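We were asked to recover a plausible sequence for a given structure. The inputs and outputs are reproduced exactly as logged, with field labels preserved.

PROBLEM: sequence recovery
POSITIONS: 280
GIVEN STRUCTURE:
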């Protein structure tokens, strides 16, 4: 009977959809990125997803700080057997939780190899326990993510219509591409109309295709909406505080598409109506 149970469990594991990890980089101010991620996480939870947000930056304005996650109870502490998983993960609301990767993510590269492997295993455990994992990340001076496994995640880059942020976003793509080679990237445009978003995406996609042979995919756009600031002042997500505003509707649509993707085996560029690779 035990052998049958093990075989059945293995079959379910192999047949279940792969967990999804979305790693976000941003060319915008850190507080703009954190506000976007928190609203996206809340919108995904409303779609019935079990969402874990991981702060891999550990800065004053990253999502861990915004959501009051403890810098003394991190996934690195779990890996070093100093904390339990339950202690390290803070439940924000139904379907939405947050944790810190480490107290000082910038120093992860100096960890002993065994500690780094243990942290990677802990990361894999929390990923497999979630429907979707959102990582607030950055790249270091060597153009590397805090964890090597993030190289294999879906990388989404937040940008605006400002030429400086477009240049910075292209620079992020170029740096990661130089280290890990050709792969696709998702582009999320903030503070714009749909027409502006498509123009920004098209220009970036043409440059990335021409100079790097890298495909970009249009993830979506978020309109400029003062209700996001009002909701943040109230300590609430915009979809909760002002559900009929433009920003709420945009986050709902974005969350629906991410949820659909997470429940499937498609990649960003394979999702109908989701990734829009530019044909050149």
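RECOVERED SEQUENCE:
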């Amino acid at each position: 009977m035990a052998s049958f149970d093990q075989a059945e469990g293995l079959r379910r594991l192999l047949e279940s959809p792969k967990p999804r990890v979305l790693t976000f980089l941003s060319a915008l101010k850190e507080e703009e990125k954190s506000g976007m991620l928190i609203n996206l996480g809340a919108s995904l939870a409303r779609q019935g997803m079990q969402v874990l947000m991981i702060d891999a930056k550990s800065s004053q304005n990253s999502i861990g700080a915004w959501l009051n996650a403890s810098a003394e109870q991190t996934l690195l502490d779990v890996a070093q057997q100093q904390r339990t998983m339950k202690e390290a993960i803070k439940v924000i609301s139904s379907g939405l939780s947050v944790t810190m990767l480490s107290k000082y993510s910038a120093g992860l590269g100096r960890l002993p190899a065994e500690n780094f492997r243990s942290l990677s295993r802990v990361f894999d455990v929390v990923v497999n326990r979630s429907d979707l994992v959102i990582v607030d990340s950055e790249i270091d001076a060597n153009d590397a993510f805090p964890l090597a496994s993030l190289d294999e995640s879906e990388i989404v880059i937040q940008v605006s219509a400002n030429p400086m942020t477009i240049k910075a976003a292209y620079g992020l793509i170029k740096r990661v591409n130089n280290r890990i080679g050709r792969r696709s990237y998702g582009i999320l445009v903030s503070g714009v109309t749909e027409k502006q978003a498509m123009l920004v995406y098209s220009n970036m996609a043409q440059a990335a295709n021409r100079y790097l042979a890298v495909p970009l995919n249009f993830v979506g756009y978020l309109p400029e909406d003062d209700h996001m600031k009002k909701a943040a002042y109230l300590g609430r997500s915009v979809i909760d505080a002002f559900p009929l505003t433009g920003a709420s509707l945009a986050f709902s649509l974005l969350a629906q598409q991410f949820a659909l993707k997470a429940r499937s085996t498609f990649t960003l560029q394979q999702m109908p109506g989701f990734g829009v690779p530019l044909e050149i």
